[in-house]
Amino acid sequence: MPVPAASHPYWLRDNCPCPECRAPRGGQKLFRIGDLPDGLAAVEATEDATGLTVRWSDGHRSHYPAGWNAPAGPDERTEHAKRLWEAADFARGLPGADWAAYLADPEERAAVLASVLRSGFALLRGVPVEERQVLRVARSFGYVRETNYGELFDVRVEPDPANLAFTSAAVAPHTDNPYRDPVPTLQLLHCLRNDCPGGDSGLVDGFRAAALLRAEDPAAFDLLARTPVPFRYRDRGVELSVEKPLIGLDPRGAVREVRFNDRSTHTAALAALAPADLDAFYAAHRRFAAIVLRPELRLDFRLAPGDCLLFDNTRLLHARTAFEPGDGHRHLQGCYADLDALSSTLAVLRRTTAVLDELEALFEGEGSREYLGEAVTLAAHMLQAAALARAAGAPPALVAAALLHDIGHCRGGAPEAAAGPGGRPGDRHGESAAARLAPHFPPAVTEPVRLHVAAKRYLCTAEPGYADLLSPASVRTLAAQGGPMTPDEAAAFAAHPSGADAVAVRRWDEAAKDPAAPTPSFAEFRPLLRELMSS
Amino acid sequence: MPVPAASHPYWLRDNCPCPECRAPRGGQKLFRIGDLPDGLAAVEATEDATGLTVRWSDGHRSHYPAGWNAPAGPDERTEHAKRLWEAADFARGLPGADWAAYLADPEERAAVLASVLRSGFALLRGVPVEERQVLRVARSFGYVRETNYGELFDVRVEPDPANLAFTSAAVAPHTDNPYRDPVPTLQLLHCLRNDCPGGDSGLVDGFRAAALLRAEDPAAFDLLARTPVPFRYRDRGVELSVEKPLIGLDPRGAVREVRFNDRSTHTAALAALAPADLDAFYAAHRRFAAIVLRPELRLDFRLAPGDCLLFDNTRLLHARTAFEPGDGHRHLQGCYADLDALSSTLAVLRRTTAVLDELEALFEGEGSREYLGEAVTLAAHMLQAAALARAAGAPPALVAAALLHDIGHCRGGAPEAAAGPGGRPGDRHGESAAARLAPHFPPAVTEPVRLHVAAKRYLCTAEPGYADLLSPASVRTLAAQGGPMTPDEAAAFAAHPSGADAVAVRRWDEAAKDPAAPTPSFAEFRPLLRELMSS
C-alpha cells in the first residue's frame, strides 16, 4: 500500500491507533473530528517492517502497525456480500444443523449463523416441540423484537383472523411487517404441528429477484428503487404506516433491502407521482411480482415438528401453500429478531475461535521450547498447572488462569529475551500476559495471571519456608522481580480481591514442573476457555 | 379530483375498497398485483355525489366513496414532516408533560408523542424516582428494544468503563448505537439522581444541522449523503459493524436519518474512496461537525430526578457536560425503543378521539331528535340505558353496549328512514350499529349491540308477560323485526355466548324511556369508551 500520509492527512490521523486517540478497551475514538486543527499535515512519515510512523504538524505522533488497513469486505447487508440463489441450488438439502449440535458445537453454530447472512436462511432441526422454544432459539444469538403480534405469535387457524396468516389460505411470497420502520430484520418460525394436507413452506431470494429485474428491465428496477411506496396495517389497537421503496439500495446503488407484501401495499398516495411514472410504476411492480413467482426461484419444503426456520426478512420472501385443517393441525410459533445481533454473535464466535487457535499455536510453537532451564517445556508447565487446578476442583476461571499464566513468556514470534540471571526482561510477564488476555477474558482470569509473579514475592514474605520450595530458575528470577515483598506490600497484596486466587495459581505454578507428570492437551481446555470468553 | 380511471387503471384497481379486494377488518389487500389481467381497462366510469363507480374490462366493479383518496401528508420520518429547531425555539420551555397527566389524559399523551415525532423529543416530569421506571415509560407507547447494553442500562460512573458514557467525562453530541442496523430509533433517559456539579444535558437537531449544511455547502451535503461510513463497536462479547452514510436520504432526497458518533466512526475502509473524494469527505465531515457544535443549535437543560427524556435517535444528537462525581451522584437509567410503535400509539389515540367525537356528535345531532315516537329523544334513551347499566354494576363493555345500542338508528347525515309501522328499515339497526362499532370496540361491546333486537324477539317468546311491557313504538316494530322467536330460535339464542348480555342490554333498553329520569352526558362515558377501545 502506498504511504497516503501526505495526500490524505485527516483520514490517516482519524485512524491513529495510539491509546490517546483510541480507547485500548473497545477501540472507541477519543477525539472529535473537529478537534483536529485546520491545515493538518504530516511533517515526517517513515515506513519500515513494523509499519508507518508519522509526525504531525500539531506535534502528535502516530504509529500504524503493518497491515493496519487490510481491505474490508463489502457491507455484509448488501447483495455483494450474499450468495444469491435459486431453488435448484439447494437440491442437496437445506443449510442448517441439529439443535443439539448447534448448542454444543461452536463451529456448527457459526455455520448456521453464517448461512443466514450468506444465503438468507437456515433450518434448525430437533428443537424441542414445546411452546416458546422459538424465543430460546432467538436468544441463542440475539434479542427478540416485540411487535403488535406479541413477543411471539402463533401461526394457526384462528376464529376471527385479523391477518391472512391466521387462516388456512395460501399465502403468496412476501416479507413481513413492511409497515414497520425499523422492519424486523429476522424472522423465526418454529413448527409444533404440521399434519394437515398442504401447508408447505416456500422461500424466494428477493435479492435474486431484484437482480433479475435489473438485468431484464433496468428502468423498471430504477423506478421501483426510487419510488417510496406506502405500506399500511391497522386493526383496533394498531395503525402502522411506512413509506419505503420495494427495492432499497445503499448510496452506491447496491440492493440492501426488499419489501414485498401485496396485502399491505396501500398505493392510493401514489397518485402524487407524475402520471407517466404512475403507469410505469405499475408495469414495473407487476414485472417484479411476476419474477418473484417464477417457479425456479421458489424453494419449497415442508416443516416438520421441531424444525425452526430462521430467515432474513429484509431479503427473503416467505410463503405457504393452502392447507385443509380437517382432522389435522398446523401450528407454528414465530418471533422476530434482528440481523445485527446475529452478525455480532457470529463475529464473536469467529474471533473466539481465532484467539483459541492463536493460543494453541503458542503452546505448540514457542511453548514447546525449553522453559527457563526447567525440566519441562513452557507448554507442559502451563498444561500441568491447569491439570492441577482442575484436579483441585478450582472454578473454570482459575483453571484458565493456571493454563495461561505464563503466556507472557511468549511473544508470538521470537520468545521474549527470556529471563537471564539478574536480567529485567522476565519481570513483567504477568502484566504482559494479562494485557494480552484482557480483550478476551474476564478479570477473574486475567487478574490472577497478572498477579502470579507478585504472589511469589508475597509468599516469600508471608510464608516461612516457601522460598525454599522454589526451583533454581525461580530463585534466579526472584531478584529481577523485586525480591520478597516488604511487610506493607504483603499486607496490601493479601487485601487485594484477587490476591488469594493469584496465590492459588502460584502454588499450581510451583508444582507444575515435573517431567514425569501426565500432561493434558490444550484441546481439552478449549471448551472451558470458550465458555469464559463469552461470559 | 379528476377521474383517473381511464389513464391509470392499475393504480385505481389496486385501490378498490370492495370486500372482495380488501379485508373489511384490517384492510389487508386480498389479491396480488400480478392477479390483475394484462391490458386492464375501465369499461365505464361514472362519478356522482357518492363517489366514483367503475366497471372493469374483467367484469369487476369498484366503487370509490367520495374523498377516498384524500392527499396524504409527507412521510412522517423525513425532514418534511418535522419542525426543525434551534435552541432559542424552546425559550419558553421544553415540550412535555407531567407523568400523572400523561397517564390520565389522552390529550396530554397524544401531545407528548406528537412532540417526539415533530420536534424529536419530549420531557416527562414526575416519573417515579425508582429503578426500571424507564421501561414502564417505554411500554406506555411501545416496545423496549434490547441491545448488548441490556434491556435497560445505567448511565453513571463505572469502575472499568467500556464506553465513555459510563465515565464523568463530557460527551459530545452524538447519536447512539450507530453500529446497529436497525439502529434503535428512540432513546429514553430517566434521571434518578443528578446532584453533582455539571452533568447537564444537551440536544441538537441533526436534521436542522443537515439542512444548514445543505444550504451552506450543497456539495458537502451530497458527499456525506452518498458515502457509507463504517461504524464499529467491539468489546468482549460484541462485535458490531454497520456501513451507513452520516446523512441518510429517502429516495427523493429528503433527510430521513442522521448518524453521528465520533467515537465509533471507523474510517480505515474509506481508503477505498477515490482520492479526491477522501479529502472532500473529511472536509465535509469536519464542516458538518462544526455545524453540529454551533452554540445556537444546542439546547441545554438539566435533568432533575423524575425527569424522563424521550428522543428520536435517528434525528437528535444528545450530549452532556462533564461532571465532578465527588460527593454527589449522577445516575440515569436508559433504554431504547422504536418510533413506529410510538407513531402507531399516537395514531390510535387520535383515531379514538375522532371516533368518540363522531359518536358524541351523533348524540348531540341526530340523537337529539324524536325517537320513534317515544317520550325521550334517541340520545336520552341511550344515555339512560347506559346510566341504568352503570347503576346495576354492569361491566364496562355492557355499559358501552347499553350506551351505543341504538346508534344503528343514526346515519351520520339523515336519520335512517325510521321504522314506520310494518316497514323493514328498522329491522337491522342492531347489525348496522355493530358493524359500525366493530373496527373500534371489542366483541364484548358489539355482540350485545348486534343482538339487542333479537333479544326482544327472544324475550317475547321466553318470558311470559314480557311483550306486555313493551312501549307502543316497540310493539309496532316487533313485527318488522320478525315477531317473537320460534322455540328453536329461542333455544339457539339462549345458547349464544352473548345471549345473556344482549338480554341485559334489552332490559335497560326497555327501561330507558322515562322523560323524568336523570340523563347523564355523553362526556361522562368517554373515559370508559376509550378504555374499551384500546383493550
Automatic annotation (TrEMBL), chains A, B:
Residues 379-417 form the HD domain. Residues 96-336 form the TauD/TfdA-like domain. Its cofactor is Fe(2+). Residues 10-66 form the Gamma-butyrobetaine hydroxylase-like N-terminal domain. InterPro entries: AlphaKG_dependent_hydroxylases, GBBH-like_N, GBBH-like_N_sf, HD_domain, TauD-like_sf, TauD/TfdA-like. Keywords: Dioxygenase, Iron, Metal-binding, Oxidoreductase. GO terms for molecular function: dioxygenase activity. Belongs to the gamma-BBH/TMLD family. This is TauD/TfdA family dioxygenase. The lineage of its organism: Bacteria, Bacillati, Actinomycetota, Actinomycetes, Kitasatosporales.
